[in-house]
Amino acid sequence: MNPVLDVTDVVKEFVGVRALDGVSFTVRPGEVHALVGENGAGKSTLIKVLTGVHRPDSGEVRLRGEVVSFDRPVRAQEAGISTIYQEVNLVPLISVAANVFLGREPRTRFGLVDWARMNRDAKELLSGYGIETDVKRPLGTLSVGAQQMVALVRAVSTDADVVIMDEPTSSLEPREVETLFSVVERLHEKGIAVVYVSHRMDELYRICDQVTVLRDGKMVHTGPLNDLSRIELVAMMLGRSVSDIREHGATAFGEDHNAGKEPLLSAENLSSGVRLNDVSLSIRPGEVVGLAGLLGSGRTETARAIVGALPLDGGTVLVGGKALKAGDVGAAMRAGINMLAEDRKAEGIIPNLSVRENIVLAALPQLSRFGVISREKQDRIVDTFVKRLRIKVSNPDQLVSELSGGNQQKVLLARWLCTKPKVLLLDEPTRGIDVGAKAEVQALIDELAQEGLAVLLISSEMEELLDGADRLVVLKDGAVVGELSGDDLTQDKVLAAIAGEAP
Ligand SMILES: Nc1ncnc2c1ncn2[C@@H]1O[C@H](COP(=O)(O)OP(=O)(O)OP(=O)(O)O)[C@@H](O)[C@H]1O
Ligand SMILES: [Mg+2]
Asked: Cα(231)–Cα(243) distance, rounded to whole angstroms?
């Protein structure tokens, strides 16, 4: 079959980095093509070249055999390339329906937007994909996952020959992920090609048939996915040998180093409206406690309550036995509690500051003596974390917004780690981080735990919870429904507890 999309020898350079270094990439109708590589390998850049966000410096893009060059994303969409980007980039202030039909609103005879029809059509379209929501609500009032689903429906409802998805599942709940997979299946049956970027191996092997591997802006492999074992694929992404990965790939994690010690953090009877109902948990120094549960079970709210960001109707948070002033984020931080938030765009990264500034931001008060901030000290810290987390930057003074998505996440993690907190609350810490760095992040958390850090780990990836946590607290509807440790830390038992069957 002739390729629907054919990229030859594309080069794209930014100041200081060759993001795409002669990449060729071919996609045939109906195939589900995985595009993989480490953080910063060039995946998003390739997609942006395909969709007219960036112009390539050289090379050629053919769509259905014809050379194309789009100057704007809507042109690519009109030509049949539809895209869901890594970060939701719809308009939060306008309604869900208006977002679905943005740029192609149904019109009345008089050329005015036909709101009634638009709302009706949007509702029908969304429920066709199992999404029931008030389409007149501003998009921004939906959860990040729901927004991503709206973006998905928008993308597949246009007449496309190719649908590109850049890490579509990173903010989705398991149920939404299933919906996404059925959408991919439907596209496949209709002969529409899908380009799928993800760091999650399970997903790739479940839905993709072809794979292209990028490394440092170069295409290093393309072919059927099933010809490669997972470990071979990872080795190719990282440019390491299979035996090397077998030896050093997995990180030991999860012994109970501090059994018997007094809790460093205790949350007692936290309640907040309908969201939290009498939640109690404690973490000893050196312990990693995982929070398991479904969307809306109160995981993020529990973390926010601990750090003082969620108003409480009742309950107390104690650090080292001393009660904190309720609802005071500053007090929590001074007591050594830090939180890595889930939504890095809204709550974390400051795009117009450099990588260095973003990293040392939270540690500045500790780094300054008599109001003077030692540049040397800053440099040392920044260097250490850039190396340890393998953050891909051309130099630390580069704007953080120029980093790839996964590398921005690492910068945030570095920010909280370098404040040497006593208690670290991590909400989806490795979301969007590639397999190599994931192991590094987990090893680093483990190391800090051995030095006495208490960690609360929220993750929707079962594997990460089972590998990473010493103990799991299971939440349902804002209440603790179970606690698992030791031999009970198995997937079956955790799933049963999440579903509400008492362990
Ligand atoms: N606008 C930009 N200005 C400068 N450098 C950029 C810009 N966009 C991307 N880069 C650089 O290009 C390289 C490739 O980035 P890209 O976003 O394509 O990575 P990626 O493979 O999508 O990674 P991730 O898995 O983290 O999303 C990185 O080194 C990144 O810092
Ligand atoms: Mg990317």
From this structure: 9
